[in-house]
């Protein structure tokens, strides 16, 4: 999920826009749980909110290829290399489905990519953390893709048809990502003491940033209520975070790792795990561009874009020639 964390103050549709005159048939479709399609009338604020969310989601998939791509050449076996290659390639595919879904709302891919590269569009804060050991690849699959699934499964029921349909396929692939990560960690935990220590160290580093992926607490979430009303979002940030913690604690026990939170304990009264306070200062620092790898990630994306200029130029010339031939 790469999307909950990104409800930033001041960069999205305003509440005043929500009060504009309703579009014909829009509210009725929402009420009847009928998908809104690209040619349907929709409020401008709904369109803008979707463009922001889907494009940020697409950017997250693309930037998310970098931390793991870093380990493809260092995978310990051919099998693990093949799995990691497939996984990173899937993330690139997710970015493409999502850019295509956003384009149905009338924004071009060039515009979206330009916004990523000039820093005006955000991507998930989690991808600004470094991958320091091979165990990070397992922990990313288990926890980061696990959190992504928790966030993204409800998006399969999102009110906007192209986004909802893209998410069905994305979620199936995310499920493979989560399993390959857990499988990698199980193998390492059956290995040497040094391997087990490597897994624990990676869990210690990733746990809190993963909890931050669900975004600010509900009372601090800028447009959560509006997105819920529009059927873009089905559960609040805190509900999703709780769901993730409840599902993950038993998995950590099976794996034999400790989650780095002394306040983490089962609350029989609530029927949920209680957990400690999140360091929101760290979260906002990362979102504002001051995380451990923000500059490195952006530099890599800008370089890739510049290196690909000749491909775009060749495609443009080819399209021109094709059109000219057809006209002839
Ligand atoms: Fe993905
Ligand atoms: Fe994934």
In words, what does this structure look like?
With 328 residues, this protein is mostly helical. It starts with 14 loop residues before the first helix and ends with a helix. The relative contact order is 0.13. The chain is built from 14 helices and 2 strands; from the N terminus they run αααααααααααββααα. The longest helix has 29 residues, at 161-189. Bound molecules: fe (ii) ion (2 copies). One fe (ii) ion binds at residues 61, 91, 94, 170, 174.
Question: What is this entry, summarized?
Answer:
The chain is an all-alpha fold and 328 residues long. It is built from 14 helices and two strands, in the order αααααααααααββααα.
